[in-house]
Design goal:
five-stranded antiparallel β-sheet, about 30% helix, Sulfite Reductase Hemoprotein, domain 1, about 625 residues, globular, alpha+beta, Sulfite Reductase Hemoprotein, domain 2
Length: about 625
């Protein structure tokens, strides 16, 4: 029998641990999770931003993130971004209207954004919403308004389990295995457990019950995908488990099969088990290597599976069943006729009604338009709205005889159910507008590029979408690594002057065989990048192979064409070129239309304030 550890040994161990751990661990150890809320309310009641001691702001900004409050960047001192949380993108009747009214009344900046005006909300890549220009003293009233309709901000940021992603239409469209109960349990029991609030880093969970792969399990820390397995002579529907996926830092990883199949009733235990395992054993020293994908790579699947079985799961886990990855079509680079690749357009619900997915370019929605969208959802549907991983909203429960009226509404001219291929495929992160580590402006520039591509690029009639994703830096919150054409913000010299620039990559996507973009051009000045993309797209239109196997002439998708084309050829096609594209944010780097401070501020956030921070 071993001797008990003395209190002196424990103290020595803790001292060594804190000496090795990243400084943020000490900050979180002092106060984190649910207890942070009372401090936010206290600061808000005593003067807001000014009530936070200047020498403690970095610590409090780190803690605030758990409750969805991110201090904005240099020159925007005292303003915060607020991120909401709603598992798998479900906004119940009344919730979108409340969010929109908060955006209208509280999320307004000192001047208008020249592209988007003032007072708007951003739809995120994890099926949620972000609001900007929030004053700390307004947070109690905002929380009261949102929480009165069931919307909250808890666990939407910081080192914790983030908004859980899932099939946006779970419970509405056909599913092979029902995912709603598991999503709800993860939300209420797992994310609601304050004992697990302080994770080594942010942690992403996804659950997909459909067979098209729309929860994108391959880029999540743990993903549950539909599968079937024969157990005791019975074909049982359930989930296969993958772990260790993620993007960012130019080190993307596709999630690895854990070789585990679980019945729906056992899936929660396995998900919780892996969260607890990572919480206990995950590294807390090097934040660039603390993500679960590096942990999974370090431990390996066999050790993780055995540890889960021995220490965390109280039933025998089965080896993986048959999955449906060969049929995945969501952002998989496959032809439109193969199946669903996003949630834009009119689709069938399993109850005979319809859903209508709208295209919101770069995910930015003015507050007044969001109010109108909520009204249309109530008038033509049940009032419920779903949000997708592609920064778009979906109106659900629309009867056949209401479809024509909804599609004719003026709001759908701005956010169409049948957008151009470029608008349909566009995504963009926050960029330098609010993010302290971004290198380029993103949303305004992407909006301009979409209009320019619509006017200047002719695509074959059968090309329904070109997925262009734009991230302002290598954190890749805009998911550039999974795009047909991925853009990452950089800086470059042109004519002796430092300017905003892009790295341009091609050939990314998820699906059966997730692939990440290959870089074909680097540090292309921002005024030459649209020309480079246009040249590449024109080469695609001219050189792609045509199929002779169908009655309707169809050719390769962009991803198929990239896979079949030599890298040197792609580099040549993607030739930078100055054009008539107007690039007004070439040199100011941190945006000219907001009153930024001339000098840096110690109050500035040191981490991204972006779509998936």
């Amino acid at each position: 029998m071993t001797n008990p550890v003395s209190s002196g040994s424990i103290v020595q161990f803790l001292r060594r641990w804190f000496a090795m751990a990243h400084k943020k661990e000490g900050i979180k150890e002092g106060c984190y999770g649910d207890e942070v809320r009372e401090h936010i309310l206290e600061f808000a009641a005593n003067g807001g931003f000014e009530a936070i001691p200047a020498d403690e702001r970095e610590e409090w900004f780190t803690r605030f993130k758990f409750w969805g409050l991110f201090h904005q960047r240099d020159g925007q001192e005292s303003y915060f971004m607020m991120r909401l949380t709603n598992a798998s993108g479900v906004l119940e009747p009344g919730q979108l209207r409340a969010i929109a009214e908060v955006a209208r009344d509280y999320a307004t900046g000192p001047v208008e954004n020249p592209e988007f005006g003032n007072g708007w909300l951003d739809l995120t890549t994890r099926q949620s919403v972000q609001l900007h220009w929030i004053d700390l003293e307004d947070v109690p009233e905002i929380w009261e308004t949102l929480e009165s309709v069931g919307v909250h901000t808890r666990s939407s940021g910081g080192d914790t389990m983030r908004n859980i992603s899932g099939c946006p239409l779970h419970g509405k469209a056909e599913e092979f295995v029902e995912s709603g109960p598991l999503l709800e349990r993860f939300e209420e029991e797992l994310r609601g457990d304050d004992e697990l609030a302080n994770m080594p880093r942010k942690f992403n969970i996804s659950v997909s019950g459909c067979t098209v792969g729309c929860a994108q399990d391959s880029i999540n820390d743990i993903g549950f995908e539909p599968a079937i397995k024969e157990l005791d002579g019975e074909r049982v529907r359930g989930f296969n488990v993958r772990i260790g996926g993620g993007l960012g830092g130019r080190q993307p990883r596709a999630a690895t099969p854990l070789d585990v199949f679980v019945r729906p009733e056992n899936a929660y235990a396995v998900g919780r088990g892996f969260v607890e395992l990572y919480h206990e054993y995950g590294g807390r020293q090097n934040r660039s290597k603390n993500r679960a994908r590096f942990f999974a790579e370090d431990w390996g699947m066999e050790k993780i599976r055995e540890t889960l079985q021995d220490e965390y799961v109280g039933f025998e886990m089965h080896t993986a069943g048959e999955d449906f990855r060969t049929g995945y079509t969501y952002n998989a680079g496959r032809p439109v006729e193969d199946g669903q690749h996003d949630h834009v357009g009119v689709g069938d619900q399993r109850d005979g009604r319809n859903y209508v997915g709208l295209s919101v370019p770069v995910g930015r929605l003015p507050a007044d338009d969001a109010v109108e969208l909520a009204d249309l959802a109530a008038e033509y549907g049940s009032g419920e709205v779903r949000l997708t991983r592609r920064q778009n909203p979906v109106i659900v429960d629309v009867a056949d005889d209401e479809l024509e009226g909804l599609l004719a509404e003026p709001l759908l001219e701005a956010y169409p159910a049948e957008p151009s291929p470029f608008e349909r495929g566009a995504m963009a992160c926050t960029g330098t507008e609010f993010c302290s580590i971004a290198l380029t402006e993103t949303k305004g520039r992407m909006a301009r590029m979409l209009r320019w591509f619509n006017k200047t690029v002719d695509l074959p009639d059968d090309v329904g979408k070109i997925k262009i994703h734009y991230s302002g830096c290598t954190a890749d919150c805009g998911q550039a690594m999974t795009a047909d054409i991925g853009l990452q913000g950089m800086r470059a010299r042109k004519n002796g002057e430092m300017v905003e620039a892009f790295d341009i990559g091609v050939g990314g996507g998820v699906g059966e065989d997730p692939s990440f973009i290959d870089w074909v051009r680097q540090r292309v000045p921002a005024d030459e990048a649209p020309g480079a993309i246009r040249n590449l797209l024109e080469a695609y239109a001219a050189h792609r192979e045509q199929s002779s196997q169908t009655e309707t002439a169809r050719g390769q998708t962009f991803r198929q064409w990239v896979d079949a084309t030599a890298e040197e050829q792609l580099v040549e096609f993607c030739e930078p070129e100055e054009t008539d594209f107007e690039a007004p944010y070439m040199t100011d780097g941190k945006q000219a239309w907001y009153p930024f401070a001339e000098a840096g501020s110690s109050a500035a956030s040191e981490t991204p304030v972006s779509s998936d921070d």
